[in-house]
Structure formats: structure tokens, C-alpha cells
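**User:**
Everyone, produce one record:

**Assistant:**
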Amino acid sequence: MKISFHTYSLKEEREIRVVLRGVPKEIPVDEVKEDLLSQNLPVQSSVCSLSGVKAEQPRKRALPGQCHNCQSYGHSSRYCFHSARCVKCLGDHGTAQCTRNKDTDGPPACVLCKQKGHTANYLGCPRAPKRAPPPEKVAPRRAPARAVSSTLSYARAAAGPRNAPPAAKNTSTSADDLSQLMSVITVIDTSELAILAKKFRTAANPTEKLICLIEHASLVEAIKNKF
């Protein structure tokens, strides 16, 4: 029916691909192949003059592979049934059948973006896949601010919601904390504290928060001296 399409190989049907590192050059490649076959490892092809002593998987590509038949990305030419397209020009033929001469026919052309000046396998092509940006670090979530009211002090609002009151370590420590808190309340203006809390909560950025603290510098200084 002359339908253009491409397929993918199943994971269990793919060939095992490994790199043997550390094999001395003096050992013939045929001996390495025979040893692998004796371990029931089918050898389709081999490359000599390897260095290192390690067997490892080939490095994965950071970008999708490109088909050498239709020049599209995301599948291989082995399972491609699209019409062949040249990597160097806009012709509907395979790259091996291309008769283009780089000296007389001018710059190459890309079949993906239809622009001249680069080949279809140029990673700077507008149609080429781009590397994904590194994931952004997620900032830790902060508890939502609580409004200051006549029954809720600024100190409690800034502390956030409390599920259960912490158990007191000892009576003397709790009494000291309460005494210190009462001494602070007696020297500061609670109405001014409420105004500062409201401004600080509605500030849009750190600069506005800093301005709020400067406007109420005397209050901040009084709290600082008491604590």
C-alpha cells in the first residue's frame, strides 16, 4: 500500500552490547570471540585494539538517535520504512546515492528544516532535539503566615501553626520564659507591633520587608535588647 511508517524493537529482542576494556592487544580477537561464545554469549561483531580491563554497557546517548534512512529522530534505520532522504541535500534518495559535489553545488541543505547551510544531522538545526535543562531545585515549603489579632501575638503568628504544645522540660524553665515574655510586653507597644506584623506580611519582596524594619527600628531594638 506504499505507506510510510517506522517501528521499534522489543527490549527483549535487542542485542546485548558491551564494551570489553583491559584486553591486552597481544591477545587475538578470535580468542576473545571464542571465549565469549563458550559462555553462550552470541558475538555478532568485534573491534580490536581495546584498552582497559573492564566489561561495561556502551554509554547512552543524551539525545534521541537519528535514522540514517529518513533522517528523522527517535527511531533507527533498521526499522524505518519511510522514503529515503539524503542527509546532505533535499533529494529523495539515500545518502549513499547522492551525487552532490561540495565544491560545485554550493552549501548543503537540510531535509528537516528545508534550510541551506547545514546538513540534516547538524545538532544546531531548528528541528533537531534539544537537551533537557537540568531540574530546578525545589525550595522547601514554608508554613503559611498567620494573621495577627488581639488574641494572637506576633510571636505566635511568626511561629506558625502548632499541632500540640511541646512538653515542658521543667517548671523553672517555663517560668523563666514566661517572666521574660511579660517583661517584653511591658516595654513595647503592642499596637505598633501589630502594625509592623501587618506590613511585614504584605511586603512583596525582601527590600520592602527591610524598609518595614527600618521604619520601626525602635521597636525592633527594644525587642532585641530584651531577648
Remarks:
- The first strand starts at residue 19 and ends at 21.
- Residues 67 and 78 are 8 Å apart (CA to CA).
